[in-house]
Amino acid sequence: MRKRQESGRGKEELLVVSNSSVIIAFVKICRLDILEKLFRKILIPEAVWKEITVENKPGSEKIVRADFIDVGKAGNKRLVALLEEFVNTDEAEAIVLALKRNADLLLVDDRDTRNLAKKLGL
Q: pLDDT per residue over 23-58, tens digit each?
């Protein structure tokens, strides 16, 4: 599992956190490269990594080889558990990781998740 190295970000480098559905959608259309071109780096929580790199899952080998996708710990298990009352685990961890790392952008496709993230200041 890759870990994002802690370093200062330049003005042009956004800290982007994603849940699984966004990455899976781009893998399905064979255009994972678009995410890399748009964001240079994407940070995902461990739950997302586990979901999208399941052995024999179509496209998982492309995700494993994608150097621009880094994995981070969401931490704050209590907040993750609370958010899981409203959204899936990968979405809850993505929100918590985005909050923890003060992300510039959270990539999610689910309306309820987006609304929850907005309420939490993302």
A: 999 999 999 999 999 999 999 999 999 989 887 778
Evaluated on CA atoms 82, 86, 92, 94, the torsion sign reads negative
CB 60 within 8 A of CB 89: no
Count of domains observed in the chain:
1
CATH number at residue 85: 3.40.50
C-alpha radius of gyration, the chain, whole number: 14
Q: Which two tokens stand for residue 40?
A: 């240079």
Report the side by side order of strands in the sheet with 42-45.
Answer: 69-72, 42-45, 16-18, 105-107
From the CB of residue 16, how many other CB atoms can be counted at a distance below 10 Å?
A: 21
Nearest CA to 71 out of 63, 79, 62 is that of: 63
